[in-house]
Amino acid sequence: MKHTVEENVRDVYSVTGEARLGNISLMSKEDVDRAIDQASDVQKNWKEIDLHTRARILHQWADNLVDKQLIIADMISHEVGKGMSSAKKEVLRTADLIRYTAEEGLRSHGDLMRGDSFKGGPSSKLAMVEQEPLGVVLAISPFNYPVNLAASKIAPALITGNAVVFKPASQGSLSGKLMIEALNDTDLPEGTVQLITGKGSEIGDFLVTHPKINMVTFTGSTQTGQAISQQTKMVPVVLELGGKDPALVLKDADLDLAVKQIVSGAFSYSGQRCTAIKRVLVQDEVAEELVQKLKEAINNLSVGDYQQESDISPLINTRAADYVEELIDEALQKGAHAVTGNKREANVIHPTLLDQVNEDMRVAWEEPFGPVLPVIRVQNEEEMVKLANLSEYGLQASIFTKDTQKAIKLGSQLEVGSVQLNAKTERGPDHFPFIGAKSSGLGSQGIRRSIESMTRDKLFVLNL
Ligand code: NAP
Ligand code: G3H
Fold first, then answer.
1. Same domain for 154 and 226?
2. CATH number of the structural domain spanning residue 144
3. R_g (Cα) of the chain, nearest Å
4. Does the CB atom of residue 240 touch ligand 1 within 6 A?
5. How many domains, the chain?
6. What range defines the domain where residue 267 resides?
7. Span 194-207, average pLDDT
8. 394 and which of 221, 327, 370, 438 could share a cystine (Cβ 3.0–4.6 Å)?
9. Per-residue CA distances from 116 to 30, 90, 129, 368, 385 (Å)
10. How sure is the predictor about 1, in pLDDT bands with cuts at 50, 70 and 90?
11. pLDDT for 383-425, tens place per residue?
12. Same domain assignment for residues 349 and 230
């Protein structure tokens, strides 16, 4: 990120560094402390506000986002280098998510349990189980969906009566700020949501260990997520982290369908999605044909500028582009074959297909978060499952085959949160549970799951 720092303010530039978009405060620990204190105070009243009113406020927020979609999408587009059409989709998807969250929250009715439904239990006891808010939820979001992945934490926290301390990614903060302005332009009591800006590496530890933070919900890299989980004490933590999603292509697959899905899954937003397809495991019998078809499809991707809606555009920063280049170079040195791509212009990495990748290469295991797709040829399904599961990650996997029973059998052996049959890996729709296994996460998101994660049971036992 190109930036200039003056005292405690940092200018934020577009992803290409060409335009100054605005600035953010580099908040001090004292500022953060004040913000958390205020959220904690305000939450005591917020949780008493009736559910219907809280839902109405969320609907107001969604309406404001739709009204301001062009302004917000324009900021997303420049700040994180996304085409305007994807940026608009992100805003509208977020409005839908908020509305669904409001409705789902309205339908949270708790539970009623009879004592005598337990063998020998007393018929005189009746338990009313209610869901209480946790208090102050700390929401930390990544750069790649600066609005959607923030609102997916903030909306369920609010509908359940929590206050929110929201820390967006530094490159993404201006989009986050616009989204919060749309929220503050509702009947939400002042201070219920606190926006924290500044460098995660400087204020992150202070935030996640603050005694008035009652829950942490984080989306970002595995490295940061693991550091957070090692520091928090006695507060629930939900983590959505990195991935190395494999596409398993069986010899009976519809190859044209597989190619269409794999290319879209691997290269949309230049591969900067946790759910991007990040490796292909293909059976030898169809490997050559698949690689040729992938090459043809990848060569049809447009490369250039997000403002022209190019399929492939500059990565978020130079460090990210350097890392992708390093992975490609290492694989080539160790004998991989660059079928297409392997070219860099500034921070644009041309979409790269690597064939003959093997287990000794870093690109077989590491998450590039950029437009490079390694192909690993395998002899049989057992080898496919073994290689898929050897990864430290376990977000999603795709299986391409015409044999649904076989797909279910294989899918049940994969150590991942979700398995997609004959389609690319992806998170939505946003009410589906979204789970990372192994180093890909902890806990589950998705509207209903997020609501549940932000409450605790409170039991009233009626002794009749
Ligand atoms: P990141 O570098 O881990 O940053 C994520 C957030 O954490 C940012 O807000 C960052 O702030 C903050 N942060 C940094 N250091 C921190 C610390 N010590 N304590 C607390 N917060 C800290 O990730 P990213 O580069 O933005 O996003 C890319 C990664 O996220 C990829 O690995 C991708 O797979 C993953 N991701 C996962 C999902 C999922 O749902 N599974 C979704 C999207 C992305 P600063 O920006 O100020 O550093
Ligand atoms: O980057 C991670 C996001 O959770 C991916 O969401 O599959 O809708 O692009 P998506």
1. yes
2. 3.40.605.10
3. 23
4. yes
5. 2
6. 245-429
7. 97
8. 438
9. 53, 50, 16, 56, 47
10. very low
11. 999 999 999 999 999 999 999 999 999 999 999 999 999 999 9
12. no
